[in-house]
Amino acid sequence: MHDENVHAFGGFGAETEYLSRAEFVYKKLWEGIQDGEFHSGQRLREAELANRLSVSRTPVREALRRLASEGLIEFAPSRGMMIVELDKQQVRELYALRETLEGAAARFAAQHASPSEIAALVELLERQDRSALPSEEAARLNRRFHNAIHEAAHNRYLVLSLRQLYASLALLPGTTFTAPGRITSAREEHGAILKAIEDRDAVRAEAAARHHIENAGRIRMQMMFDR
User: Fold this and answer.
1) 68-115 residue pLDDT tens
2) Are the C-beta atoms of 82 and 68 separated by less than 8 Å?
3) Which structural domains are found in the chain, ordered by start?
4) Using N-to-C axis directions, what is the helix angle for 135-152 and 182-198, rounded to 10°?
5) Given 12, 50, 100, 208, which residue has the most CB atoms within 10 angstroms?
6) C-alpha pair distances (Å), 179 with each of 26, 202, 215, 221
7) What's the rounded Cα separation, in Å, for the pair 209 and 95?
């Protein structure tokens, strides 16, 4: 059916096919970065990616160009296209922006979250109460908790901004939940954010979220650069 459409509509069908393949490659690479399949500093070769994804090099090239425009990959003269390696200043800037955006999300969630959305946050927080929670599981629940707040904010443009920010955060190695005591302290900070959202206290919710990200950023900087 798909091939018939390409023939039926001539150039338009071919262009649609090309765009869909470029989008497919982009999503695969973006998800690979998020899942840690690709790591900072890793070289990306067009031919290898095209073979791996069973596409031509043209949509791969377009996807790489798009990822470069989003700051996830860069061209190194001696190595070609590679996943970005963030320096100390870039990490500091990422967390400064994250503090602002997560604060705004919590503020909006306090104002707009539905009862069912608050109930979902409560459930996610309860899952974080388990003792001896592995750091990777804690990180996964942390992402789900924050994503639930983003959705409860009911601001599509804020969600788009946070999605782009999280794409860059995925370039960071490991998780802050490996730091001693961080799982417990993060859970307490999440509890303060949720309580403010339940109380519909937008100012307190924003302050609690900013405090949470400030602590996460401090731990991240220590993990990466204070060695």
Assistant:
1) 988 889 988 877 889 988 999 999 999 999 999 999 999 999 999 999
2) no
3) 2-83 (1.10.10.10), 88-225 (1.20.120.530)
4) 20
5) 208
6) 33, 30, 12, 12
7) 12
